[in-house]
Amino acid sequence: MNDYNKNYFWTTKDPMTEEKKYFFKINGIMVEVSREVYNVCFNSYTKSLRDNRRDEYAQLSSMDAINKDGHALVDVIASQSDVEQEVYLNIMIQKLRDEIEKLDEEEKKIIFGLLLEDKSIRKMAIEWNIPEMTLHDRKKRIFDKLKKKLSK
Q1: pLDDT value at 86 more than 80
Q2: pLDDT confidence of residue 90
Q3: Domain assignment of residue 42, yes or no
Q4: How many CB atoms sit inside 10 A of residue 22's CB?
Q5: What are the contacts of 127-134 at 24+ separation with CB within 8 A?
Q6: pLDDT at 47
Q7: DSSP state of 25
Q8: Lesser CB count within 10 Å: N end or C end of the chain?
């Protein structure tokens, strides 16, 4: 996680030289930085956004997140010794594995590329030479299929 937001990044062209200039907000002041520094910070910001969207889509929570009772999720999980919950979780994990095994090879490659190899849709689309939106739609269909199978 980083502390950036979209207002921390700014680019402009020098009207005299037509050269692109890069700026980053530091302590509320826009400071000119090298292209490399700008790209590192901006890429970190976009990866953070992408990770947050992925976690939100998968309905993941931080283990430190506070629930409505004021307890951290990690503390709640640690304090629960409910065998039924553990059995249910193990069954769901096994069902997910089984359903992933039933996917065709392309669907498996998409799942493993996005989730296990942590590739972006953009990077995979470039590697596969297909439009990003096509890959995004395929990913959505796969997740919808898995959700449907697991909710039965």
Answers
A1: no
A2: 81
A3: yes
A4: 19
A5: none
A6: 86
A7: E
A8: C
- Residue identified by tokens 């980053």 is 24
pLDDT at residue 77 greater than cutoff 60:
no
| 129 DSSP assignment | T
Edge to edge, the sheet with strand 9-13 lists 9-13, 20-26, 29-33
For residue 80, pLDDT beyond 60: no
pTM of the model: 0.45
Confidence class of residue 103 from pLDDT cuts 50, 70 and 90?
very high
Query: How would DSSP label each residue in 32-70?
Result: EE-HHHHHHHHHHHHHHHHHHHHHHHTT---TT-B-TTS
Number of domains, the chain:
1
Q: Compute the mean pLDDT over every residue in the chain, rounded to the nearest whole number.
A: 81
Tokens of 135: 């890959």
| Domain contains 48 | yes
- In angstroms, the CA 31 to CA 113 distance is 37
Tell me, yes or no, whether 111 lies in a domain: no
DSSP state of 15: T
Q: Which domain holds residue 46?
A: 1-60
74 located within any domain: no
Q: How far is CA 102 from CA 38, 82, 147, in A?
A: 43, 31, 14
